[in-house]
Hints:
2 copies of one chain form a homodimer.
Chain A: E1 5-8, E2 11-15, E3 26-29, H1 32-40, H2 47-59, H3 65-76, H4 83-99, H5 104-127, E4 134-138, H6 144-147, H7 153-162, E5 166-172, H8 179-190, E6 195-198, H9 203-208, E7 214-217, E8 221-223, E9 228-231, H10 234-243, E10 248-251, E11 257-258, H11 275-278, E12 279-280, E13 283-284, E14 297-300, E15 307-310, E16 313-315, H12 319-333
Parallel strand pairs in A: 4-5, 4-7, 5-6, 7-10, 8-11, 10-15
Antiparallel strand pairs in A: 1-2, 2-3, 8-9, 9-14, 12-13, 15-16
Helix pairs in contact in A: 1-2, 1-3, 2-3, 2-4, 2-5, 3-4, 4-5, 5-7
Amino acid sequence: MVSPLRWRDGTLEILDQTRLPAEEVWIRCSTPDEVADAIRRLAVRGAPAIGIAAAYGLALAEPSASGIERAADLLGSTRPTAVNLRWALERGRRAFESAGADALLPLAERIAEEQREADSRIAVHGAALFGQRERVLTHCNTGALATGGRGTALGTIEAAWEAGRVELVWVDETRPLLQGARLTTYELGAVSIPYRLVADSSAGVLMTRGLVDRVIVGADRIAANGDVANKIGTYPLAVLARRHDIPFCVAAPLSTVDLASPDGDAIELEQRDPAEITRFGSAQVAPADAEAVNWAFDVTPHDLVTAIVTEAGVLEAPYDRSIADVLSTSQSAA
Amino acid sequence: MVSPLRWRDGTLEILDQTRLPAEEVWIRCSTPDEVADAIRRLAVRGAPAIGIAAAYGLALAEPSASGIERAADLLGSTRPTAVNLRWALERGRRAFESAGADALLPLAERIAEEQREADSRIAVHGAALFGQRERVLTHCNTGALATGGRGTALGTIEAAWEAGRVELVWVDETRPLLQGARLTTYELGAVSIPYRLVADSSAGVLMTRGLVDRVIVGADRIAANGDVANKIGTYPLAVLARRHDIPFCVAAPLSTVDLASPDGDAIELEQRDPAEITRFGSAQVAPADAEAVNWAFDVTPHDLVTAIVTEAGVLEAPYDRSIADVLSTSQSAA
């Protein structure tokens, strides 16, 4: 299993996912600034993985109240949509207040371990949803590279495949940064799960021809009512799935739920550099003066979501109630 | 206005659209094989323009019954979905039978001229559909480069803009070959119509935020019942537009209608080289052994189409009747 992060000799090493699959380059980060830069430019990405990276980034801060505060602000400003980042930094702040800077590295390791455990449980719960030999479509990358564990949606697909419940994975290339074409293919190929890469806009023809039995994706933030912010292009998949009566499932750890967002309208959607659209690597694609708009996420309303798979089990509608219930249970158990 | 084709010194010169917008390179074709190759590799594309190119290609054939037949078969095999190609070649065959090879060049010039006239009428009829200062979304390229005239959907947008009926054009980049990012931006920029380039998967967030007033696209083939085959990604736009109560319009000449296709199921959808997905120019994007599937078109069912704009006026549902009526009227007028 590939890993997006490793702690070595007092530094955080980050596998540069922008260079995959062509090259495996590790970036050595010895300051929160270097970690923040890696998160901002998507060297490490995936909501759970950026939460873990931020927790390690905090452990690299100057061990004073002002140093920790500055690092938390910097790391928290890198990506506005994924809530795991804020959640991990908030845990870091509380750990520092109660036990000092020495508590930050053990906390980062604990968050990483919790995610690995959550991934394993998500995979078990999610795989049970699959029928026999399904053709499943997924978007972006939600595997080991996105979480440091087994992955969320992709971990579920892998577990379902091991149980004979998956025939083929349709992998959306996921413009503009091609996490599907570059990373999901790389992870599926490593474990020999059959897949076919397609352009994002192919989902319609695939569903029309009866070639998709299920859609499963991850999440960057889940609002209290079950609305799901995820990689741009997720909402069109959910709308198409509904038209074709295909289950549309979301797999994410409970750390992705944000009760402070009552619904999707409350979620800030990151816009990224237009050059991700107008250029391709070093090549200019559009005219030099072309203006582009680059939303990184969209929101899928809860009424289009068949199920949300979490480490605590599979949530179903009405989500406001099932989410509130599972969070109160998991908090009282913790 | 840019032109995709020109006849010069007894040869057909084709503007190589695969090199735009970076370079304007003209390919000189003196045989039907060279024209067929240019069509196959999308140096010239757009349903009307490939019909015109094929008609000129026939005029380059060896002037014998067997030479014409061989050229027509070759040219007709290049792209299976766009029906204009077959329609132009059928007209060429009939012209040769009744008036010999000397009739082929004048016929090609007539088809090109008819398309220019059709485009102008489509633009007038289409522009009348627009309200005031609309934000209109379009897919692929349907401008002068696609027809040799004013364009179909893009010509309509341009005419509506001249009349103050367009505020902004959302341009889908149109994976995998980026005709939107490369060509539509180039054409809109040349006439200073404000546009923003977006990833194909952005339509959902644009519509959710109330930023799209209309979708208008071209067509590669329209079945007798009004089902529309067009560039991959068109059908998802139509499904999203319906969910958001946004008009979804198609602009195409009557030569795009194929009464021999009773509905969309009868339309062959071209699949192209998977390398268009796995590679980007000379760069490998996906793992070297990645398998991809590359549908070039999808079918939008007629129930999602608000209007079909033709040179003979705007058609509305029920399309089986409105299409049959307009074709019988235009044939009796011809």
